[in-house]
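protein under study:
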Amino acid sequence: MRSRPAPLLLATLVCGALTALAAPAASGQSVRGAVVDEITQVGVRGVTVVLLDAKASEVDRRTTDDRGRFSFEGIAPGTYSLLAQAQGYPSVLSPELNVTPGATVEQTVQIAALSAAPAEAERPETPEERATSLARMLAAMCEGQYDPAREGILVGVVYDRETSVPLPDVLTRLEWVEDGRIHSVQTRSSGDGSFVFCAAPAGEARVLTAELGDVRDTGASFPIRAGTIKRRDVALALSSSDRPGDVLGRVTDFDTGEPIASAEVRLKDTGFTAVTDASGQFAFHNVPWGVYFLEVEHLGYAPQVQPVRIMGDRAHDLRIRLATEAIEIAPVRVEVHARDWFGGMRGFRERKSRGFGYFIDRKDIEKRGALRVLDILREIPGVQVDRAQPEQGELNPERTTTEAIYFRGCWRYQPDGSRVATSPVLYVNGVKSATVS
């Protein structure tokens, strides 16, 4: 048999040590601190922090910044407490803070996401402490909204019968019969599955009904006493542990609300991975029943990890907001490698390494101070360079200044029968040269 959710405060409150720091009397008193996620220990932005006095009346309120920080400055000495409220987290009430003259009190409040398993506190909260905290929080919430002489406060949690997971946004209705007519008031459960009726009419036969879609539960009647707090939980049969569920979600920018495309989304230690589309949406289908950690990453944003409990035969719609984060890029190392621009010289090097032939390189040319290729050829053994004689009747003046190259005294004959001097094969910068000058 599954146990019902125990306290209304589903998250465990772990408060940091209170440190009273001496401050000049002229600066007054202050309460400062941070609200952090219980699992990631990262500051939670956008949390409403209400400062309550000893009578549980609101003194002031603040909204946490990007690091989850808040500050109440210039307050009067006295006894205070903090009420932290955020979408997706249960409301949490801190222990009493004793603010002495000229002191600054630091307070850290840890809140747990809805589907996160409660962390183990160093010392379990006693029923008396839990009742006191709950009464103070409800008194602050319902202040001025009910008549203690004729009405009471009805609170409770709507949860899934199979998994005991709290259910948000469930229509909850309180009904009773008066003067032969059925009367009712209704509200919806908050993000942590809790609901509150601040002005519940006192009487004997009161009925509580919860509806979510086509699932409805109506419990047995119960009494409500004037001036008291009554707790009544409701269980809905929504899921089945032997059937898988679906996870749908959308990733947006924390500041602008714009969708984030190409974000990597995965269920840790499973094969479920996805990349968000242009509208920032992703989906996992047929996910086995159980608890998982959803990881979301995108370049330029702080990665986010949040627990999610999959209830069988249900679709879970998640809204994930990523905050921008500066990224330190590792140093870029640039390596320069020499490139062989004259790939055709590879054959030259290979033949030279075998010692076959006569080779001339740049150093040889610079050493001899040669101005023309022919000046180098004249020094090659077996090569003779003479001035060529023009053919009879030839009027080409350039021909009269052309040298003839003899290789080992031989001539080379053309296909038409004419003969020309045999020229060696010459390469200039790796390119075969047809003209020698």
